[in-house]
Amino acid sequence: MWSCVVAPKAALFQCTQNSRSALWRVCFAKPRFRQKNSSLRIGCADSRVPANQIVGLLPGEMFVHRNVANVVVHTDLNCLSTIQFAVDVLRVEHIIVCGHYGCGGVLAALRDDKLGMIDNWLRHIQDVQSKHRAHLDRLATEVAQHHRLCALNVIEQAANVGRTTVVRDAWVRGQTLTVHGWIYGLRDGLLQDLGMRAASEAELAACYAAACAALAAEQPVAER
Q: Domain range for residue 179?
């Protein structure tokens, strides 16, 4: 809607001008405009996957954390702080890990590309790859393996959310909180629920196993 894909010298200026659009001003002029979230979305930093737009929500309606390849690591204080604020302060009822097919970070991990500092971050994706090596090795093409690893990564990261101390403590005290794993298709613009949906620590292992089994039963994506 407010594209910055213009001549390089004018790109940043155009972005500031876009903020003056009538629709944007109307949105921010509403007296009710404030942060009122029922969900936290942990997604990829890829600019082709705008967090609010793909689910039809306005600014203020979804709390968002983004990083390369939607990774949730137990030593990442940025991500953990976002989860803690969302759960303890905003009192969200849903945490959604939302990956996307065609993820460049996942492909780089799959190929073991050497890109610099980011290689250390992508090591987490390679851990997922190693864990599901037998599953991925059954797929004949890199395209199919990439497609499947994107989905497996979402399931793994959603499980990691459920294992954080913040989420476990919330469940212990009886707070309503469900962890979900979704994936977005760049080609068709559709969201897919991967079946990774846990509302308590007791459900987590079974939901994880069921989601992985359902994925293993899917037909591999065709070569494109």
A: 34-216
